[in-house]
Automatic annotation (TrEMBL):
A Pfam family hit: OCD_Mu_crystall
InterPro entries: NAD(P)-bd_dom_sf, ODC_Mu_crystall, ODC_N
GO cellular component: cytoplasm
Protein known as: Ornithine cyclodeaminase family protein
SUPFAM superfamilies: NAD(P)-binding Rossmann-fold domains (SSF51735)
Organism superkingdom: Bacteria
Provenance organism: Nesterenkonia sedimenti
Length: 305
């Protein structure tokens, strides 16, 4: 069974994807036991594979990353998801991998924001102008009363395009500079930047930050001061200590201890009480279980049509 990009979006609305991820964690799945991302450098980019399994399902996403594709009008991320049943490991579905990533990445961010943003949060800053920047508007709307977005990007035209996406969804939006974080309730970074995007000392004490643009140890979108000041949340200790440059870089300098980070599972299941006067920082790199959770829901809905 083939499920293309349009069907992925049609079958699984953003809020439903957020709920599927939360339900997986509440049901007892431990991301520490998840499959590990493999990465192969190619002459032109990278090939990544992300396998995961439960008693009901087995699946893997295979995607390519090719920087510069956008200049030729081709997506930077392309790929497929292969779903197998858990009992006999029989292949049952193939999905558009890029569309899946466009859904599950902001859904994971939204799950973190659902549990870290202040109850009256309504103002956000988004760093980035790519596919994920556009998708995160819907994601934030799914979990907060979003009234205004400031968009920060290197290209004014691309930033304006994100602004127009927000306005089309009924949200006030403007192109802004990095200093806009001083007025933000929520900050999301979804860029390929190798270095910090903003001065975290400007953040209000109640702010929630989600950095999801990098998944290697050499890149980071946030500064060391943030992890020294904030309560840090990771998808899992295992994945963070391998791929989260925002944490690995300050840890190597002795400015961050992974033992101080809490996991998304503990956050979602209420095992941790959040401080009211300290920023909350979610660092996501993307994990295979997130894809499998969303795909299982999409497949069930497809079969039920």
């Amino acid at each position: 069974m083939w499920i293309g990009a349009e069907e992925v979006a049609e079958l699984m609305p953003m809020r439903a994807a957020v709920d599927a991820l939360e339900a997986t964690l509440v049901a007892g799945f431990d991301p520490e036991d998840d499959g590990q991302r493999s990465r192969l450098d190619t002459p032109a980019g990278q090939l990544l594979q992300m396998p995961s399994a439960t008693t009901e399902w087995v699946g893997t996403k295979v995607v390519t990353l090719r920087p510069g594709n956008d200049k030729a009008g081709i997506p930077v991320i392309q790929g497929l998801y292969l779903l197998f049943d858990g009992e006999h490991h029989t292949p049952v579905a193939t999905l558009d991998g890029a569309a899946l990533t466009t859904l599950r990445t902001p859904a994971t961010t939204a799950l973190a924001i659902r549990h870290t943003a202040a109850p009256d949060a309504n103002r956000a800053v988004i760093f980035g102008t790519g596919v994920q920047a556009h998708a995160h508007i819907e994601a934030l709307q799914a979990v907060m009363n979003l009234e205004h977005i400031d968009v920060v990007g290197r290209s004014a035209d691309k930033a304006q395009a994100v602004v127009e996406t927000a306005r089309a969804r009924g949200v006030s939006a403007e192109v802004a500079e990095a200093e806009a974080v001083a007025e933000a309730d929520v900050v999301v970074t979804c860029t390929a930047s190798p270095e910090p995007l903003f001065d975290s000392s400007l953040l209000p004490d109640h702010a929630a930050v989600a950095a999801i643009g990098s998944h290697d140890g050499q890149h980071r979108e946030t500064d060391t001061a943030l992890v020294k000041r904030a309560l840090t949340i990771v998808e899992s200790q295992t994945s963070a200590q391998k791929e989260a440059g925002d944490l690995l870089i300050p840890a190597a300098a002795g400015d961050f201890d992974f033992a101080s980070a809490i996991t998304l599972k503990d956050l979602v299941t209420g095992k941790v009480k959040l401080p009211a006067d300290t920023p909350r920082f979610f660092k996501g790199t993307g994990m295979p279980w997130q894809d499998l959770s969303v795909v299982a829901g999409i497949y069930a809905l497809k079969r039920g049509k």
